[in-house]
């Protein structure tokens, strides 16, 4: 999984040469809204009209995020802390330096910060059709 995150990070770095497009919109699944830090439209021969979005998710001490889905492929990387997640029907634990992949349209029941005194931070990459939301409420 770390290899997937590194490949996507390398892809992002290659597209930054023009300039990163910052989006002021936030995602409200935690107390601290996620901030979009990078978005780039991709128009290569193989990836027509695809967009990469990179966000930082901050999860407060002891907080559990709300249930949601990601309609497009999702790769995450734990920047700080340790979290417990329930997605794809299983519970997973990830610590700083771990990467993970979420299958599109699977219910992500929540992410819990396992530390009671420090924030957990995740760097999350999405790639999908231009303008398609990267997060939606769980059905």
UniProtKB/TrEMBL annotation:
Domain spans labelled Cupin type-2 = 56-124
For this UniProt entry, which residues form the secretion signal?
Answer: 1-20
Q: Which InterPro entries match?
A: Cupin_2, RmlC-like_jellyroll, RmlC_Cupin_sf
Q: Which domain of life is it from?
A: Bacteria
SUPFAM superfamilies from the UniProt entry: RmlC-like cupins (SSF51182)
Keywords, comma-separated and alphabetical? Signal
Identification of the protein by name: Cupin domain-containing protein
The organism's taxonomy opens as:
Bacteria, Pseudomonadati, Bacteroidota, Sphingobacteriia, Sphingobacteriales
């Amino acid at each position: 999984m770390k290899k997937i995150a590194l490949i996507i990070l390398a892809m992002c770095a290659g597209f930054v040469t023009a300039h990163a497009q910052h989006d002021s919109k936030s995602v409200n699944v935690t107390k601290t809204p996620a901030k979009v830090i990078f978005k780039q439209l991709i128009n290569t021969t193989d990836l027509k009209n695809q967009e990469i979005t990179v966000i930082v998710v901050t999860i407060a001490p002891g907080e559990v995020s709300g249930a949601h889905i990601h309609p497009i492929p999702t790769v995450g990387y734990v920047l700080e802390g340790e979290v417990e997640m329930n997605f794809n029907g299983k519970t997973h634990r990830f610590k700083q330096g771990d990467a993970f992949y979420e299958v599109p349209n699977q219910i992500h029941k929540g992410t819990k910060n396992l530390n009671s005194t420090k924030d957990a931070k995740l760097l999350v990459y999405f790639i999908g059709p231009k303008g398609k939301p990267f997060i939606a409420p769980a059905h």
